[in-house]
Amino acid sequence: MTTLLTADWCQHGKDEYFRKFEVYMMEWVGEIKFDTVAFTSTQFGGPIAVTRDKTKVVKVQGTGKPLITIYTASGTFLSSFVWSSGRVTEMGWSSNLDLLCIQEDGAVLIYDMFGNYQHTFGMGQEAQDTKVIAAQVFSSAMGTGVAVLTTTHRVFLVNSVKEPKVKMLPEAPGVNVPPSAWLVVCPERHSRVLFARGKELYSLNEGDSRAVPLNIDLGADSYSIINMAVSSTYDYLAILNNRGKLWLGSLDVRKTLRLFDTWNLSLPKQLVWCGNDAVVINWGSDIEVIAFSEDSIRFNYDSSLFLVQEVDCTRVITLQSHEIIQKVPSVVKEIFRINSNAPGSYLLDASKQFQKKSHRANEYLHLVKPKLFTAVTQCVEAAGHVFSSDTQKMLMKAAQFGKTFLDDCSPETYVMMCRVLRCLNAVRSRQIGIPVTYIQLQVLTVGGLMDLLLIRRQYYLALEIAKFLKIPDKSKILSHWACYKVKQTSIGKDQIAREIADKLGRNEGVSYTAIAMKAADCGRTELAIKLIDYEPRATKQVPLLLRLKEDKAALIKAIDSGNTDLVFTVLLHLKENMQMARFQMEIRNIPLAQALYIKYCQQHNRETLKDIYDQEDNHNALAECFIRDSYSPRNSGMGEASLVAAQEMYKRAKNDVNAALCEEQLRLLKVQHALEEKFGKDLVGKSLHETLKLLLTKNEIKQADKLRADFKVPDRRYWWLRLKVIGEKDNWAELEKLSRVKKSPIGYEPFVDVCLSYDKKYEAQKYLPKIKDELKVKYLVKMG
Amino acid sequence: MTNHLSGGKVNISLLQDLEKKQLFELILKCGGPKVIVWAEDLVPLVGLIAKNTDLNEHDVRKMFFLEHGPLPPTTVKNIIFISRPRLHLMDMIADIIHEEERRGNRKECHLFFVPRRSQLCEKRLQSKGVFGNFTFVDDLPCDIFPFDNDLMSMEMEGAFKEYYVENDPSCLYQAAQALMTLQSLYGIIPRVTGKGPAAERVWDLVSRLSQEPRKFPTNSQIDQVLLIDRAVDLISPLATQLTFEGLIDELFEIKNMVVRLPADKFSGGDDSQNKIMVPDELQITLNSADELFAEIRDKNFNAVGTVLSSKAKLISSQLGARRTDQTVQEIKQFVDRLPSMMAAKRSLATYTTIAELIKNVTDSTEFLDSLQLEQELMLGVDTDRVQAHIEDCIAHQQPLVKVLRLICLQSATNSGLKPKVLEHYKREILQTYGFQHILTLSNLEVAGLLKMQQSSRSYTVLRKTLRLTVEDNSEVMPSDVNYVHSVYAPLSVRLIQQLIKSPSAWRQLSDVLALLPGRIIDHSQQLPNYIQKRRGSISSQSSQNENTKIVLVFFLGGCTFAEISALRFLSQQEDSKVEFVIATTKLINGNSFINSLTEPLVPDHK
């Protein structure tokens, strides 16, 4: 069995192997004419866009408009659409699997992988004017970039298609002929273009004013560079000239790693890297793998083929099959190589013998015993690198077998690999068609793989993987699904809303607002409103409802939330966008809205406030408004008028007590005005009590008595006041007089108290006999 | 500064830590040195969560109050405004920024709202053209502040007025948010009970907010929450508090656990930590960090003297003990104990002085007469007549708030005043204190504190069924909660007492409870599967307390120190299986409660 596993290995030098194995039989057999079409694919097992190859003459069919068809890596049809825009110069995939179609006029039209048009951006006016003759899509630190070459042989590029900012690169010197080859490289955020004109090679750097010539020697006297390729990690460069010489070296061309003569003067169809290990040249119907040393390896195909560069391998797509060429990962090599004495290899043998119930298992185990941990680790890791599930199983079984002989082996890596393998096998399956390798997964991360699944609308698989890998937060998957769901215009809004709510539930991190926004963007306002209902956070609901012009719903939601700030926001929004009368009618049925609006008016608009109270027949509140007015400093001199109004309102409200009190206050004000003239003292606005006190202090006893009678001041209070004023005036004769007028309603104890408080013991004695008997002793003590 | 918060059954310092973290996260967002401009009411509250030195460590160079007028010139580039979401404060901020621009200073401005941003305020800033000046605008979601190891307050002035007079439920939303904060710290509270319209609304909002995504700890430390709407019990705040802490509050006002007293009354020279000297005033922090205060705060004032004098004896005997100490070792032990003994002595001196200050007032005839009237009203004596004492208070122009407090109390105990009586009081007040107070009276009527007599005599019924008045109880060695007011046992506390006695007590009392506003709420909150109840979890510290239930009492509309003392008394009873944690919208007393309802049309001339 071990020998079988190495059947697809090709030895390369003494100790290296390349393997070429099939991952899919293509489903598209019979659907496409392989020789007359052009392919576009991308890394991480990306989908394949197929369109008519313009360089080839074919019989026109139908309308003559080209058709763009998109297949998965397994050749399963995904979508197709008729190209009805301008002439396409080049196509490419962005990192989030949007198909970028670059037109002759520099417009970049973006489609998703289901053939839905997204949007367009341009490569600038100059590119549009001078026409584009070639374009390249490249991966940059900011995502995916696009570079175009114009008929004037200038290069324009954007570093990110998400935020396209067009930059012009410096001009290459020399005669004005098109480059014999050009290539965009973008290591570490700085993009530049390698521009070859015959033998000359220039670097056009972003931001520089002139091109930088690069020195490179491909051996021969006169040649022309015809193709260039850069490895996916932007570490290595490959240059091919028309004499069949291939140069391999560092990206900065300072270090030459190899100069190889292919002895082939024909024009290669493709030059791509196979990881960082080798270069693969597509010569039409056969391919040549050239590494940094040793002879090249040739593979012959009967028909034409198409190569896709990956970070660790090269994919070979033909009409019938989809294959991977990869340098055998060292751990796999260690285990399966013939005569290997790696621990993993022994462990694998031990495990096989054990399954055969052979005693030799023990012998093998003995051999590996000191390095058992390494052996287990090797088996686990090797399992990741193989595609065949049988081999995976075999290796994992060996690891499991070895693990049982280890005392302190953490099962973590083993369990993790089991899970990862399951996920890898699932996404590699024919139906999904993502032939991603273990190394690619490590570059891509699980999150990245999930994103790829979501873009492919494989929501169920993504969910299952999330569950399986114990990724707690599934809200992203669900939200993605929901956003896709709302676009399905064929399904009724109620059903969609219900389905979404059923699936998403009250998941943390799910933003119904975002989904609703998406629905609104698709023109499905009613669905959006339905979805907003599920949003638990009113602070998110309300602004969106207002945006959708659902004012009433916004108001109700705001009120339900209890968040008064939201209610105010809606109220002010309504007030600005509605006729006043309608606005007032609208809110008067909603008590909280009314109350808050009243509160707002109290601070901002007193007149409106009165309008509202008037409408509501709230006369008490109106009266209070008038009373406030009468005290307002802005309203000086008009106080009485406001009070009259207040009195009238109290009467209407049948609040007789308050009406009478208003009336008394008006009367008092009148008296105070008169007194103010007489005494020239500030009096208006003071209380009746203060007024009486003033009169008593001024010895206007008669007038005070009259005022007191007019306003029905109770005896007790009047007497207390009199005593107090007398004390203040130091007029003890008046006190005596008062004691004789009539019987005191407050008793005579206060008489004594007031005398004592001014230290008039002699005066105090006068009233002692009138003190109640039970208090006499106390007062005797007080007087000492 | 935190240790006095962590002593209780529920660790309140978690709240402090959380809020501190939130504050500093925001401050750190603004790189470099910075000045902070605080809305005035926030300054003492921030003192409850972070120290000045903490702020300095975070590169806060200076702090100012948010006032009218420009900032003092400063070279610091970052200005952080920390403000309440109120429109007039926004205007002040806008003015300050305009002024800085006029001066040509390029400043980085940041604005943080406590407890959360408001679109209304942001709109105002936009219309003033300064909203774009802010680099960061964010929330500082501190709804509720840690006061003591069993006490938290939201310090919302006027919450009761807002809801019951202006119909503005903003404060309830904030209370619900505060409750969510507490749940996110201490776990979902399995049982929710309460009484009153505000309680109903808050529960409604809490269940609504619970649907928002939020993380909760895995175990519930609090077993039950009890929402008490102040409108259910308007009597208790009106009664004079007779506990030590209550009296300090009644007579000298405790603000954010700090009381300011005239400095000349205290013997100078000692620089104890919890006192800060201002020329004429001494600020004393009152919390359980001080052992002596923790012991006497909840006692009836009449019992405080005994404790103080026995403490005095103890300390002097300890200090005197050195004469008999012989061996070197004993002397060394004595010296080791000396600092703590000196601290105890200092604190004893402080509280003795405070007690003296209180005694000066409580011995006065005015105080005693009012208290007597209060107690007679509580006992239902002559509640339907015009009270001569109230008339005398008016005649002597005693503070209006005192008069209103007595009248409101009469209205409550008589289940409303006779129209003639009410009219008489009204006229008396307007004639003596001025007509402008008609609006205050109207507010009191709207709030239900003053009302016309009703057919049902609800107070009489409540007094009998719930034993609101108890006459034969020792103030020194009390056996019932009524000791906090000497005669009257707070209605709110009686309700709580009933509820904890048996869970179904409220249902049995439903006839009586129907006399109080609002429905009874009693719900259980579903705990997510992964959350276990507190039983058997690690949090319990001693096995004896294993069966103790922790109840969070949340007063909506404020609570008094006397009520807090009564609750503490309840959980200290031997047979008690309940510990209380208290949260309130504001710490109030009769004066501050009535004052919050007044309409200051004309500035008071005292």
From TrEMBL, chain A:
<feature type="domain" description="Vps16 N-terminal">
    <location>
        <begin position="6"/>
        <end position="415"/>
    </location>
</feature>
<dbReference type="GO" id="GO:0030897">
    <property type="term" value="C:HOPS complex"/>
</dbReference>
<dbReference type="InterPro" id="IPR006926">
    <property type="entry name" value="Vps16_N"/>
</dbReference>
<keyword id="KW-0967">Endosome</keyword>
<keyword id="KW-0653">Protein transport</keyword>
<dbReference type="InterPro" id="IPR038132">
    <property type="entry name" value="Vps16_C_sf"/>
</dbReference>
<dbReference type="InterPro" id="IPR036322">
    <property type="entry name" value="WD40_repeat_dom_sf"/>
</dbReference>
<dbReference type="InterPro" id="IPR006925">
    <property type="entry name" value="Vps16_C"/>
</dbReference>
<keyword id="KW-0813">Transport</keyword>
<protein>
    <recommendedName>
        <fullName>Vacuolar protein sorting-associated protein 16 homolog</fullName>
    </recommendedName>
</protein>
<feature type="domain" description="Vps16 C-terminal">
    <location>
        <begin position="510"/>
        <end position="783"/>
    </location>
</feature>
<dbReference type="GO" id="GO:0033263">
    <property type="term" value="C:CORVET complex"/>
</dbReference>
<dbReference type="GO" id="GO:0015031">
    <property type="term" value="P:protein transport"/>
</dbReference>
<dbReference type="GO" id="GO:0005765">
    <property type="term" value="C:lysosomal membrane"/>
</dbReference>
<dbReference type="Pfam" id="PF04841">
    <property type="entry name" value="Vps16_N"/>
</dbReference>
<dbReference type="Pfam" id="PF04840">
    <property type="entry name" value="Vps16_C"/>
</dbReference>
<comment type="function">
    <text>Plays a role in vesicle-mediated protein trafficking to lysosomal compartments including the endocytic membrane transport and autophagic pathways. Believed to act as a core component of the putative HOPS and CORVET endosomal tethering complexes.</text>
</comment>
<dbReference type="GO" id="GO:0031902">
    <property type="term" value="C:late endosome membrane"/>
</dbReference>
<comment type="similarity">
    <text>Belongs to the VPS16 family.</text>
</comment>
<dbReference type="InterPro" id="IPR016534">
    <property type="entry name" value="VPS16"/>
</dbReference>
<keyword id="KW-0458">Lysosome</keyword>
<keyword id="KW-0472">Membrane</keyword>
TrEMBL record, chain B:
<dbReference type="InterPro" id="IPR001619">
    <property type="entry name" value="Sec1-like"/>
</dbReference>
<dbReference type="InterPro" id="IPR043154">
    <property type="entry name" value="Sec-1-like_dom1"/>
</dbReference>
<protein>
    <recommendedName>
        <fullName>Vacuolar protein sorting-associated protein 33A</fullName>
    </recommendedName>
</protein>
<comment type="similarity">
    <text>Belongs to the STXBP/unc-18/SEC1 family.</text>
</comment>
<dbReference type="InterPro" id="IPR027482">
    <property type="entry name" value="Sec1-like_dom2"/>
</dbReference>
<dbReference type="Pfam" id="PF00995">
    <property type="entry name" value="Sec1"/>
</dbReference>
<dbReference type="InterPro" id="IPR043127">
    <property type="entry name" value="Sec-1-like_dom3a"/>
</dbReference>
<dbReference type="InterPro" id="IPR036045">
    <property type="entry name" value="Sec1-like_sf"/>
</dbReference>
